[in-house]
């Protein structure tokens, strides 16, 4: 079974040379730390920066240079700043190659819910609805089950949707799963996790085709 | 040169009144019009509708207006960092319209650019699209979203000149440029106001035509919301 860092490491393998990538808050943010260093990748943050770098050294924080999580950041050579409309032009116009974000629920048809729990304080969707409605390639990083042990990979989402039919791949603590027109398809098992455990933790339709390899991270 | 310079925030905010709709630039606390917000707080005007990506924190930014209950309605994409906001929202005192961030930006830009509405894929199939016109283009579904209408836009830039030309810095740019010219009156405050002719026309982000009033801001706090650093090795 993977921890959050393991999930981030496995997703980092999906990032290819020449990609512009948008990372959501939480596990997705960690992905930047594990991308191979022999490829060129630029990270976009929807508040208006492309070519995001690591956190600044203490004393070098700049209130005018932050990411979408409102954290102080730095920029790398080749970076650029732009306004919010241009930022979402990059996203909606499918110039960003890969979006990695967290989710509360994903359905077997690719629907995603990650912004609202009825009855709880709703903070808003931020840029999530724009991202999921537009990105060609969306990978969800999340735990396979919630704190109550219930599956987060469902036949139908129970929470209010963020987007419809948009998720392509899911990396959880248990598995790598592809979303196909026939529902979820198991691609890889996390180290030490059996197919049976994954089946048990998945509510939606799950296709298992032949031997399922254990993932390498 | 058409002079847009005014000498004080008081002069810059002349004409504000109860029940108006304002656009306010900024992402989190970065690039917010600190001087204009203080002036709005001091003015005691109320029943305001504020279009702003976020709603500040309890003791800074739009949180200051919320604390004095001057805001009737917020139109934002994310409002997570403010206890007073949460209290007013849950008690029903404050009306909140949450919309996708890119839609917020584009509804501002549509107003700036003279488009009555735009089609966006964001929110299709979700509660955000409920009651709205949807249309299919090339096999994909889009939602019709209308341009905002606002009385004032309050924006903050890094540098500006008397002609109203603006240059922004870093990610403090965010929603500020798309709100310029998107309201009846755009008020820009800047960290450094210089005479026209000083800034290189090649470097201007927003031409002065989109700005009605510009003033030299003062006492910028530029508060950092999440101070994240790394250790020197």
From TrEMBL, chain A:
PROSITE patterns: COA_TRANSF_2 (PS01274). Keywords: Transferase. SUPFAM superfamilies: NagB/RpiA/CoA transferase-like. NCBIfam families: pcaJ_scoB_fam. InterPro entries: 3-oxoacid_CoA-transf_B, CoA_trans_fam_I, CoA_transf_AS, NagB/RpiA_transferase-like. This is 3-oxoacid CoA-transferase subunit B. It comes from Bizionia paragorgiae. It holds the Pfam family CoA_trans. The keyword Transferase applies. Belongs to the 3-oxoacid CoA-transferase subunit B family. GO terms for molecular function: CoA-transferase activity.
TrEMBL record, chain B:
Belongs to the 3-oxoacid CoA-transferase subunit A family. Keywords: Transferase. This is 3-oxoacid CoA-transferase subunit A. Gene3D superfamilies: Glutaconate Coenzyme A-transferase. One of its GO terms (molecular function) is CoA-transferase activity. The keyword Kinase does not apply. PROSITE patterns: COA_TRANSF_1. Pfam families: CoA_trans. The keyword Transmembrane helix does not apply.
């Amino acid at each position: 079974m993977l921890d959050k860092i393991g999930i981030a490491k496995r997703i980092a393998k999906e990032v290819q040379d020449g990609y512009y990538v948008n990372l959501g808050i939480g596990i997705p943010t960690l992905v930047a730390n594990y991308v191979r260093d022999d490829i060129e990748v630029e990270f976009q943050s929807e508040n208006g920066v492309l070519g995001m770098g690591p956190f600044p050294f203490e004393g070098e924080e700049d209130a005018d240079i932050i990411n979408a999580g409102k954290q102080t950041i730095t920029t790398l050579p080749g970076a650029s700043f732009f306004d919010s409309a241009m930022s979402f032009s990059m996203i909606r116009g499918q110039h960003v190659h890969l979006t990695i974000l967290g989710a509360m629920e994903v359905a077997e048809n690719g629907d995603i819910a990650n912004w609202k729990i009825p009855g709880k304080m709703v903070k808003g969707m931020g840029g999530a609805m724009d991202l999921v409605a537009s990105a060609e390639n969306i990978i969800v990083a999340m735990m396979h089950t919630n704190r109550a042990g219930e599956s987060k990979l469902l036949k139908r989402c129970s929470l209010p949707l963020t987007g419809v039919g948009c998720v392509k791949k899911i990396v959880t603590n248990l598995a790598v799963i592809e979303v196909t027109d026939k529902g979820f398809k198991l691609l890889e098992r996390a180290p030490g996790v059996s197919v049976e455990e994954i089946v048990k933790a998945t509510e939606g339709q799950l296709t298992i085709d032949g031997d399922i390899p254990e993932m390498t991270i | 040169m058409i002079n847009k310079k005014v000498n004080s925030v008081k002069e810059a905010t002349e004409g504000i009144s109860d029940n108006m709709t304002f656009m306010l630039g900024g992402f989190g606390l970065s690039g917010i019009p600190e001087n204009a917000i203080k002036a709005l707080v001091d003015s005691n005007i109320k029943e305001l509708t504020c279009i702003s990506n976020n709603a500040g924190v309890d003791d800074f930014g739009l949180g200051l207006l919320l604390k004095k209950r001057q805001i009737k309605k917020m139109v934002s994409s994310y409002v997570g960092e403010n206890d007073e906001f949460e209290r007013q929202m849950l008690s029903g005192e404050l009306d909140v319209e949450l919309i996708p961030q890119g839609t917020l930006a584009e509804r501002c830009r549509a107003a700036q650019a003279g488009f009555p509405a735009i089609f966006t894929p964001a929110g299709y199939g979700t509660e955000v699209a409920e009651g709205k016109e949807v249309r299919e283009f090339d096999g994909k579904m889009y939602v019709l979203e209308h341009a905002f209408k606002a009385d004032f836009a309050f924006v903050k830039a890094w540098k500006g000149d008397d002609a109203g030309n603006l240059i922004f810095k870093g990610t403090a740019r965010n929603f500020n440029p798309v709100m310029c010219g998107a309201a009846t009156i755009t008020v820009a405050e800047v960290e450094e106001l210089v005479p026209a002719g000083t800034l290189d026309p090649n470097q201007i982000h927003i031409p002065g035509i989109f700005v009605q009033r510009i003033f030299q801001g003062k006492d910028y706090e530029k508060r950092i919301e999440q101070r994240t650093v790394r250790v020197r090795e």
